[in-house]
Amino acid sequence: MSTARNRWQTYALGAAAVAALLTSTACDSGKDDGKNPTATATPSASASTPASPGAGPSASASPSPGGKAGPSPSGSAAPTTGGRPAARACSHDDLSITPSLWKSDSGQNLLITAANISGTACTLYHHPYVGFGTVVAGPLPPMGSAPRAAAALQPKEKAYAGVYMFRGGERTVAVTALSMGYQDRAPGSNKDSAWLEQGLAAWTGDLNVGRDAKVTYWNKDLRAVEDQLFRPGRG
Q1: What is the C-alpha R_g of the chain?
Q2: Distance (Å, rounded) from C-alpha 12 to C-alpha 192?
Q3: Mean per-residue pLDDT for 166-193?
Q4: H-helix or E-strand containing 164?
Q5: Residue 49 dihedral angles phi and psi, to the nearest 5°
Q6: Quick check: 222 and 230 in contact, CB under 8 A?
Q7: What's the mean pLDDT in 171-192?
Q8: Where are the domains of the chain?
Q9: Spatial separation of the C-alpha atoms in residues 206 and 202, rounded to whole Å
């Protein structure tokens, strides 16, 4: 009987020791030894502290290079640096056309003077389309080289173009009307548009035109046009 009591006491003592050991281990696990991140974890400051006015994801975004904000995805692209809208091409309604001859030229060359009579600027591009009514339909081919800049005309400004009519001794035909057309910025544009026709009687009288007639480019410099018309070896 005493032996059984002793065994029960021994077993009870052993159970108590195990319980004490488990309690000690549980207490030790609650200590911060720097190796258990969950033991020291606390709610983040952003979760417990109200955001300051205006704060948000964009407030902490890094600026684009140069300290300037990048373009908005929905915004339109900025104009190209130094870019300018294309100048408006002159039309029939913008111009007063005056044909004339040089006194000592015997009618071999015709000068066309175009004056801007509109209230806004316009540009005469390339060379005029020139014909002579139903006799020479045109357009005459260009001669010489184009000037460095198109003939941009402010109101009341003028530009000039010359027509090489014929060479001495060449077979010609008589014409009584001048037909004119104008190009846009693109070379060769408006060729099929209606041309304006005016009689020559009040200006020059009847003219003679050869088969190699040509027209210069528009130029605001009258002397440059004269050089092309009267110099030897016309292009």
Answers
A1: 47
A2: 118
A3: 94
A4: strand 158-164
A5: -105, 130
A6: no
A7: 96
A8: 92-131+138-166+180-196+213-230
A9: 10
Residues paired with 180 in a beta bridge? 130, 196
Q: Which residues pair with 56 in a beta bridge?
A: none
Q: What is the pTM of this model?
A: 0.63
Q: What pLDDT digit, counting tens, does each position of 151-164 carry?
A: 999 999 999 999 99
User: In the predicted model, what is the mean pLDDT of residues 137-161?
Assistant: 95
DSSP string computed for 70-94: PPPTTSPPPPPTT--PPPPBP-GGG
- Expressed in angstroms, the distance from the first to the final Cα of the chain is 142
Amino acid making up residue 219: N
Q: What burial letters (b/e) apply to 197-214, b meaning 16+ CB within 10 Å?
A: eeebeeebeebbbbeebb
Residue 104: predicted pLDDT: 79
Q: Which residue has the tokens 């037909």?
A: 179
Using CA atoms, how far apart are residues 156 and 53, in angstroms rounded to an integer?
62
Residues 166 and 172 sit within 8 Å (Cβ to Cβ) = yes
Q: In whole angstroms, give the CA distance from residue 159 to residue 175.
A: 24
H or E stretch including 47?
helix 45-48
Tokens of 19: 């319980």
For the cut 60, the answer to whether the pLDDT of residue 207 exceeds it is yes
Q: Which of the four pLDDT bands, split at 50, 70 and 90, describes residue 182?
A: very high
User: Does the pLDDT at position 96 exceed 70?
Assistant: yes
Measure the CA–CA gap between 17 and 15, rounded to whole angstroms. 5
pLDDT at 53 over 60: no
Token code pair at residue 33: 């030894």
pLDDT score at 204: 93
Tell me how far apart the 2 most distant CA atoms of the chain are, in Å.
Answer: 160
